[in-house]
C-alpha cells in the first residue's frame, strides 16, 4: 500500500481547499489503487470525454484538490472525489493527495462530503435526487436544511426529490437523456402510472418540449384530448397557467387552479408527509 505524508514543499493550497483538523484527519498521498470506491456515490455514470479532459488537466498541473477518504480495518474508502480518482488513474498517476478521516469522525463530516459531491460534480437529475434523499434519510435533514447546505431553495430540493417517485421506465428515459428534468417534473402531475408512462414515451419518441408535456398533463386533468407533437392548443388563459406555475414554485408541489366566473378553487397536492409538513410551515408563516 502506497502511503506518504504530504511534504510542506507541495504548497499551502491543499490545506486551504479542504481544512485538515489535526485531531481528526491527515493529509496524505495514497496509492490510486489503494482507495475503494464509495458505495453511496450518487453518480451512477461518468462521461468518458469529461474524464479524459480532467485526466489531461491532471497530467499538466496535477491534482489540485485532495480526495476525501475514511480509514477502516480493510483500508481506505472514498467519501468524495471519485471523478478526480478515476481521472488520476487514466492520467497514469501512482499516488493521489487525500484527506483521511478516521472511523471515529462523526456523521457530520460524512454529510459534508456528500454535500460536496452534490455541489461539485455534474450529476444527472436522478443522481442528484438520490444524493438529497441520502441526506434526508441518513442525516435526518429537512428539505429546507438540505437546500441551505447546497445553496438551493427548499422548493427546488422537494421538486428534485419527487423525481424518485417516477416509474422505473421513465427514470431510465431521464438517465439516458431521452427526457430532461423539466419533462420529468411535468410528468409528476399525473397520478395514473400507465398514462404517465404513455405520455413519457410519446414525449421521448416525438421530441416534445416541456410545455407540450405540461399541456398533456393538463389535458388529462381537464378530460381533453392530449396534444399532438406539432402544435399545442392553449386550454386555459396564460395568466392562470402562470399563476399556477408561480404557486407551484413557491410551494414546491403541484398546484391546480379551477376558475369560472368570479369563483373557483385552488388544489394543492403533496406526495409525502414531509411535503405536507413543509406546506404547513409555509401557511403558518404567511
State the low-pLDDT regions, or none.
4-23, 228-234
Measured by DSSP, the beta-strand proportion falls in 15-25%
Overall morphology: elongated
Top-tier CATH class of one domain: Alpha Beta
> What is the first-to-last residue Cα distance?
59 Å
Helix content: 40-55%
What is the CATH superfamily of one domain? Answer: Conserved hypothetical protein from pyrococcus furiosus pfu- 392566-001, ParB domain
Mean pLDDT: 76
Main pleated-sheet profile: 6 strands, mixed
Number of strands: 8
For the record, the CATH architecture of one domain stands as Alpha-Beta Complex
* Helical segment count: 13
**Which structural class matches the secondary elements?**
alpha/beta
| Estimated radius of gyration | 23 Å
CATH topology descriptor of one domain? Conserved hypothetical protein from pyrococcus furiosus pfu- 392566-001, ParB domain
Strand order of the largest sheet: 1-2-6-4-5-3
Give the helices and strands as they follow along the chain: EHEEHEEHEHHHHHHHHHEEH
Could you explain the architecture of this structure?
The protein is of the alpha/beta class and 286 residues long. It has a domain at 3-106: Conserved hypothetical protein from pyrococcus furiosus pfu- 392566-001, ParB domain. Helix content is 49%, strand content 15%. It contains 13 helices and eight strands. The chain has helices spanning 13-17, 48-61, 82-90, 107-120, 125-138, 143-150, 154-161, 168-176, 181-187, 193-206, 210-221, 238-251, 273-285, and strands at residues 3-5, 25-31, 35-36, 67-72, 75-80, 95-101, 255-260, 263-268. It has a six-stranded mixed sheet with strand order 1-2-6-4-5-3. Helix 2 packs across helix 3. The chain is elongated and about 70 Å long.
Amino acid at each position: 500500500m502506497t502511503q506518504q505524508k504530504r511534504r510542506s514543499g507541495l504548497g499551502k493550497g491543499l490545506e486551504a481547499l479542504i481544512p485538515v483538523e489535526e485531531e481528526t484527519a491527515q493529509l496524505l498521498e495514497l496509492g490510486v489503487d489503494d482507495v475503494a470506491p464509495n458505495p453511496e456515490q450518487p453518480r451512477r455514470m461518468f462521461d468518458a470525454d469529461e474524464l479524459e479532459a480532467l485526466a489531461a488537466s491532471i497530467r499538466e498541473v496535477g491534482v489540485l484538490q485532495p480526495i476525501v477518504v475514511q480509514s477502516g480495518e480493510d483500508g481506505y474508502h472514498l467519501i468524495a472525489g471519485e471523478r478526480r480518482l478515476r481521472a488520476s488513474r487514466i492520467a497514469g498517476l501512482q499516488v493521489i493527495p487525500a484527506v483521511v478521516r478516521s472511523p471515529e469522525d462523526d456523521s457530520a463530516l460524512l454529510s459534508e462530503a456528500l454535500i460536496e459531491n452534490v455541489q461539485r460534480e455534474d450529476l444527472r437529475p436522478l443522481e442528484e435526487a438520490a444524493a438529497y434523499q441520502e441526506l434526508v434519510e441518513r442525516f435526518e435533514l429537512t428539505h429546507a436544511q438540505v437546500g441551505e447546505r447546497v445553496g438551493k431553495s427548499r422548493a427546488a430540493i422537494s421538486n428534485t426529490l419527487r423525481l424518485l417517485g417516477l416509474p422505473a421506465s421513465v427514470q431510465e428515459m431521464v438517465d439516458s437523456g431521452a427526457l430532461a428534468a423539466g419533462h420529468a417534473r411535468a410528468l409528476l402531475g399525473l397520478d395514473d402510472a400507465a398514462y404517465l408512462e404513455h405520455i413519457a414515451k410519446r414525449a421521448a419518441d416525438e421530441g416534445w418540449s416541456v410545455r407540450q408535456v405540461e399541456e398533456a398533463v393538463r389535458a388529462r386533468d381537464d378530460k381533453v384530448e392530449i396534444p399532438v407533437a406539432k402544435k399545442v392548443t392553449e386550454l386555459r388563459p396564460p395568466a392562470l397557467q402562470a399563476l399556477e406555475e408561480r404557486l407551484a414554485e413557491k410551494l414546491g408541489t403541484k398546484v391546480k387552479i379551477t376558475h369560472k366566473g368570479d369563483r373557483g378553487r385552488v388544489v394543492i397536492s403533496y406526495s409525502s408527509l414531509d411535503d405536507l409538513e413543509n406546506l404547513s410551515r409555509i401557511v403558518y408563516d404567511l
